[in-house]
Amino acid sequence: MKIIIAGAGDVGFHLAKLLSYESQDTYIIDFDGERLEYINNHLDVITKKGDATSIKLLKEIGIEKADLLIAVTDSQNTNFTISVIGKSLGAKKTIARIDNPEFLCECDVDFKKLGVDFMISPQELAANEIKMLLNQASFNDTVSFESGLFNVLGATLTYKSPLVDMTVKDARQRFISVDYIVIAIKRENVAQTIIPRGNTTFELHDQVYFSVPNYSMKNLYPILGKEQFNIKNVMILGGSSIGEKTARNLTKDHFNVKLIEKNKEKAAALAEELSDTLVINGDGRNLELLEEENIRQTDAFIAVTGNSETNIMSCLVAKSKGVKKTIALVENMDYIDISQTIGIQSLINKKLIAASNIFKHIRKGEILELANLHNIDAEVFEFEVPEGAKVTEKPIKDLRFPREAVFGGVIRNGKPLMSFGDMQILAGDKVIVFCLPEAVETVESLFK
């Protein structure tokens, strides 16, 4: 598969990184020679310095043979131009990163006729991610499959969790009435993600990912030492496009929302646009203002200003005032790994979310859904099993399944089932698999 990425920023780099684990013919174009040199030194892709709107350059790298052209520069207009030109020159599919969420709604413009097959709005995706995190407030990462029949949930173990110092096998025996599968552990000061086995021991501060059927989610809280709580009162810091979209999403679901915006004109405009949101003109870093706005009665605090450090610090302040759920938007991807150590429940990066969303279009075969977890370079797949697939030949325990992957559950005839060793997977099943990058190709082959 030949893939051309226009733009070597965070989105382009993360896409290239995901593709470098696979045998894809990948090109990345950018003006910035330093960025391209860094990519050359770290990833197995082909770089080209120049203007991705140049017809000559696109022809030079074989645009007519491209299966996918992904335009993810910082300019929406440039991304549209690249997509239109690339499609005209023979690219089979084009994806453009956009900033205007209007383009994603039903409108009078047929963008596919113009040459843009798909559009991705990082702001829109980030706002949707925030809403999902609030709906599962006790967890810091959450992915749903088949409308919530199965859920992948991430949580950090505290001293309150009975799992601490237990092995996975012992925990399974002690909590036999709770249906769950531990699919991954991210440990402090350990670079590699741990795929747990029976003798793996849970440690304090481990970030643990569970695959849980919908009927068992409420039973997971006690073994984590957490209480289930509902979010009602939400405070948003920052009237960015993400802040505005998040406020719209939440008020539709009957949350009580306050939005703090420092710029007076912007605050006034938001107050007109967001009739169901209380918009406050002020500096959200001001402790006196937060106290006046009843920060102590707030259930969730969401910081989405343009400054990552402001977002992190304001969330820490909110947590110190008793706020149960804090979410900070960060630009620096390196910050994502430290969320569990600094005390913020969730850090999100809109570019990482966008890259993961775009990556779904690259996958082939029987993949229904694909998701990336925030703290780790790994993927959660949902496969639909075709007739004759290798994965149906033997029970799970007898399959030569790679150690870098684990089954997370099976959905059969609309019902969630636990994927333990004796299970025989059948054609037509929908199967959830957690997988590290080095095992993706092997796992995919089993579902063909």
Layout of secondary structure:
Elements: E1 2-6, H1 10-20, E2 25-30, H2 33-42, E3 46-49, H3 55-60, E4 68-71, H4 76-88, E5 94-97, H5 111-114, E6 118-120, H6 122-135, E7 141-145, E8 150-156, H7 168-174, E9 181-186, E10 207-213, H8 217-224, E11 233-237, H9 241-252, E12 256-261, H10 264-273, E13 278-281, H11 287-292, E14 300-303, H12 308-320, E15 325-329, H13 339-342, E16 346-348, H14 350-359, E17 367-372, E18 379-384, E19 405-412, E20 415-417, E21 430-435, H15 440-446
Give a written overview of the molecule.
With 448 residues, the chain is an alpha/beta fold. It has four domains: 2-120, NAD(P)-binding Rossmann-like Domain (Rossmann fold, 3-Layer(aba) Sandwich), CATH 3.40.50; 132-224, Alpha-Beta Plaits (2-Layer Sandwich), CATH 3.30.70; 230-351, NAD(P)-binding Rossmann-like Domain (Rossmann fold), CATH 3.40.50.720; 355-446, 2-Layer Sandwich (Alpha-Beta Plaits), CATH 3.30.70. It contains 15 helices and 21 strands. A six-stranded parallel beta sheet has the order 3-2-1-4-5-6, sandwiched between helices. 45% of the residues are buried. The model has no long low-confidence stretch (mean pLDDT 88).
CATH class of the largest domain: Alpha Beta
Portion in strands: 15-25%
* Radius of gyration from the alpha-carbon trace, in angstroms: 23 Å
- Give the N-terminus to C-terminus distance in angstroms: 17 Å
* Total strand segments: 21
What is the overall silhouette?
A: globular
Mean pLDDT: 88
Unreliable sequence segments: none
CATH superfamily of the largest domain: NAD(P)-binding Rossmann-like Domain
Number of domains: 4
Main sheet record: 6 strands, parallel
What's the assembly state of these chains?
A: single chain
CATH fold node name of the largest domain: Rossmann fold
Q: Helical region count?
A: 15
Gross CATH architecture of the largest domain: 3-Layer(aba) Sandwich
Strand order of the largest sheet: 3-2-1-4-5-6
